[in-house]
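Today's session is about reading a structure prediction critically. Students often jump straight to the picture, but the first step is always the sequence itself: look for stretches that repeat, for charged clusters, for runs of hydrophobic residues. Only then move on to the predicted structure, which in these notes is written as discrete structure tokens rather than atom positions. Here is the chain we will use throughout the hour.
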Amino acid sequence: MKLSPRNQIEVPHMMPTEIGMVDTLYEICDAEFNSRADVHHSFAACKGAKSWTRYYLLHEVRKVAARESIMCSYHMAFVIATKISEIWFEQKEAR
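Below is the predicted structure for this chain, in token form.
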């Protein structure tokens, strides 16, 4: 199992050049999503981690990647969105 160097995100089936970008894009999205009201509203309205990943976060990650001029495949965006979703739901359950 491959892990990204900084954030230890599982990066299956990714090229070595993509793995570093996973950490960079993850860090940008994580910081930005924590401060965006629309992300918090969608989280409050979602039914579960997988659906939130698929129907909301995935698209937001791809928008951030495009804005930052980071090459981001669907798979990379899905990996990042999944990690963010898992963290948010873990925090929700811990409360």
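Discussion point for the tutorial: Residues 74-94 form the longest helix (21 residues).
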